[in-house]
Amino acid sequence: MANLSNQTFFPDQCSPWTTTVYLYGHLIPAIILFIFGITFNPIALYYFATSRNFRRSVYSYYFSAIAIFDVMRLIIWFLFLFLDYIVFKFHFHAFECPIQVFSESVVSSISAWLIVALTVERCLVTYKPLQTITDTKGKRALIIILSVILTSCAINSLFVKPGFYQKREYREQMRSIICFYEELPMNDSNQYHFQLFLTSQIKRLYTLFIIVIRVAIPFMLLLTVNIILFLRVRQSEKQSIKSTKILLVRHGQHRQITPMIFFSSCILLLTVSPRYLHTFYMNFFYQSAHCSLTHFVPHLLKTLELCNYSFNVFISIVSGKHGRHELFNMLLCRSKNLSSKSYYSSTNHTSILTKLQSQQRLSHKTDEQINLTDKLFLSNNNNSHEQD
User: Could you tell me if 225 and 120 are in contact, meaning their C-beta atoms sit under 8 angstroms apart?
Assistant: First the structure.
């Protein structure tokens, strides 16, 4: 949240266009995105629970959790829009800023870190399919999801501390509601001394730290892991190892799962990062920024961020051929079975895993026999030399 209390605004050269940009660049598109996200994300939850490609897999847990928190983020946006404009009518209350900033930050960071965990999970499967496929009930995924939720709540807890935000104000020129965290001139000096350690500089650094945690680090990890995943999948396709391919298919066909993760990561990177890069920039260069960066850009970037919470899971599903067919048949209430190479029963899965383990044991035994034969051959040669 930018600290704007003691700073002056530019002349009103952008003000005549602010209402138009806000209405057609944010409010109307955001309402459409809200309706789409609220409608489709619950459908996605049902899809991942019933899909024969995802049912009882770790990916269903991750994608379902992402869909849930995307819905929550859309509801938070609509709730405070409704409260500010309809219920309170700009007569703000002290609880609004802490609750809004905390809830938005927690939900957004959880969504981002779950996509990171999903990508890392897929990367581990491509490198060590035997070790990761044994987690058939997804216990590791559930533990990771719970850990991400608790950690995000703990890191963002300072936002709800009383006195962190001093004022909530509506700026008509910008068509924006701003939360101020700088200590404003107050008649009550006791409140200032009570919040002495929460200076404006500490609050500013804490806000920037949260941006790094929820945006910078996850996005750098996503870029790195996706590159590693892409190279590994290409390598596995060139090697054409039959047993590894069977395991990858049972754990999620790499021609379907990997593009889903890739598109999910790209959407997150392209839609969420611009807004927080703008916030980071405005914390340092607000006084020298052009009025378009305060009047136009925030509205457009908020709309762009909402695109992630509305379209992320949807685009992930339709990026795969089988996903599109399953979703289409599900929406049309068709019960026809889809012919898919990734449909394997648990019996086939168990037999495949047993065969692979037996093959590994057989290869170890073969290596031991070869080593023993070599040793006997060397000892016989030594004995013959000694007799000579």
Answer: yes
